[in-house]
Amino acid sequence: MKAFTYERATTAAEAAAAIARTPGAKFIAGGTNLLDLMKLEIETPTHLVDVNRVGLDQIEETPEGGLRVGALVRNTDLAAHPRVRRDYGVLTRALVAGASGQLRNKATTGGNLLQRTRCPYFYDTAKPCNKRKPGSGCAALGGFNRGLAVIGTSEACIAQHPSDMAVAMRVLDAGVETVKGDGSTRTIAIADFHKLPGNTPHIESALEPGEMITAVTLPPPVAGTHVYQKVRDRSSYAFALVSVAAIVPQNGPARIALGGVAPKPWRVEALENGDDAALTKGILANARPTTQNAFKVPLAQRTISHILAEARS
After folding, report:
1. DSSP code for 131
2. Looking at residue 236, what is its pLDDT?
């Protein structure tokens, strides 16, 4: 790990301003992903701004009937919140499917949205990776890519997004609130927050340099059966091969978002106006799998079919 300097901020605006005036600086909260990347020297910040005491650890009701979740709310606390368990069951189920209890106790809502891919070549600094070092190439294209993305990829990158929580946020149509170094704020729809790789796979989100997530807003609850099903190689502490977040009413169109198959939580709203068969077949219609991960397409379709059949029975 390379040497760095450190400071602790007391407000979000102060933290964003500190990042803006310090080249190479990064925010740190739970550190469950960033510290691993620093140990491998994939991330080499010159300065860390600790945001753990900026007061963004509350879950509040919104005037519209939804929830505003502070960026520093821990995954464990979010999953266990009574309103989340009652009205946003898909989110609770996604959160408890992720990582371990110890990690969920440290991981934050904002950090979870920004966790980086688990592509093995991203973590292997001896191999080329356009996401880690732009222009260096993609070893995954001809390498071991069983767990990687099958849709939304490019010739530059086939890495997958690893978050469970973000898949549930996508099906809930969450919004991401931010503050910039100049003090201005904005809200980014979760659909627009994560970026597809294209020719710039190192740009993973809509955040501008120094912009800090302050909260995630959840719209009023959506009626229906809330389901999160995660298919993985072992029963705990493993990333998804395929995950499905779903909200299924007894009658009417279902909402479906997929994890483990794309560089971002994957949802095709246009298909949700059709019937279940069209949604199940069409959601990965443009998939471009490799020989090693082609199994993800039928696996996702069968998982969706199972969820829809169970929820409507």
Report:
1. T
2. 84
Copy the structure tokens of residue 253.
């169109």
CA 161 vs CA 24, 112, 175, 205, 271: distances in Å: 24, 11, 18, 11, 22
State the average pLDDT for the chain.
97
Dihedral, CA atoms, 281, 284, 287, 289, nearest 10 degrees?
-90
> What is d(CA 227, CA 225) in angstroms, rounded to the nearest whole number?
6
CA atoms within 13 A on the CB side of 265: 31
106 close to 31: Cβ distance less than 8 angstroms: yes
d(CA 271, CA 278): 7
Asked if pLDDT for residue 177 goes beyond 90, the answer is yes
Strands (DSSP E) found in 260-306: none
In the predicted model, is pLDDT for residue 235 greater than 90?
no
In angstroms, rounded to a whole number, what is the distance separating the alpha carbons of residues 176 and 307?
A: 28
